[in-house]
Amino acid sequence: MKKLSAVICLLFLFVFLTGTAFAQKNANAYFLLDTDLVTAGYQGMGEVLDVGAKAKVGFAIYAKQWEESKGFTILFEWDGTKAEYRASESGVDIVDNDITVNGAAITLAEEKNILGGSTITAGTRDETGLYTNAYALSGGSAATAAEGLVFLGIFRTLDGFLSTSTLTIKASVTVSDASGNTRFLGTRFFHVNMSVDVKPATWKEVKEQFKDF
């Protein structure tokens, strides 16, 4: 009887410990926005100024300190009277196309998504001032890369948008692991025609910023 009780206790402890470790996956995960679209990988944010009407602006989202990812959801929110989302030029991978964006004519640096395989989508909403989509690996094991490209978002300002007008795009990301458990990673902001502090952010700073989530 004592032996049986010991085995049960060990099994309970094993389940508890593995469950705790599993629950903490992506506990330190966060993401950053990058406006250097000429160079692959995260380079940091730069100011996007002197943007007028019918001009493309955008940024790449990069994962930081991810442990396991089988999918993710992106959400963009902005003033729909100032800009439109360009779904045809956005996506989970970056193709080396020529484009004029953020005030410069560039060739995008080709880059594959952190998930490392083909994806399926669900829950797409493309509305004025809001775009969201969920992406998941269509097969294979979950990705274990700590850093990598999550998404490229391209927008275009509308008629009447002046170089003195301002625009802020809110970008939110939720990551999911192999079992479908999700973790909301917070919201970051992309500013057009606004002078902002663009110093590099650390995980500690990001965690403090979103500690209430």
Question: How is this structure best summarized?
Answer:
By secondary structure, this protein is mostly beta strands.
List the main descriptive attributes of the protein structure presented here:
mainly beta; 14% helix; 213 residues; disordered N terminus; globular; disordered C terminus; 4-stranded antiparallel beta sheet; 5-stranded antiparallel beta sheet; Immunoglobulin-like; single chain
Task: Report on this structure.
It is a single chain. Helices cover 14% and strands 38% of the residues. With 213 residues, the chain is mostly beta strands. The strands form three sheets. Strands 7-8-3-10-11 form a five-stranded antiparallel beta sheet, with no helix packed on it. The chain has a four-stranded antiparallel beta sheet with strand order 1-2-9-4. The protein has a two-stranded antiparallel sheet with strand order 5-6. A hairpin with a 2-residue loop joins strand 7 and strand 8. The longest helix is centred in the N-terminal third of the chain and has 22 residues.
Strand content: 35-45%
- How large, in whole angstroms, is the Cα Rg? 20 Å
Mean pLDDT equals: 87
Shape: globular
The arrangement of helices and strands along the chain is HEEEEEEEEEEEH
Number of helices: 2
Spatial arrangement of strands, main beta sheet? 7-8-3-10-11
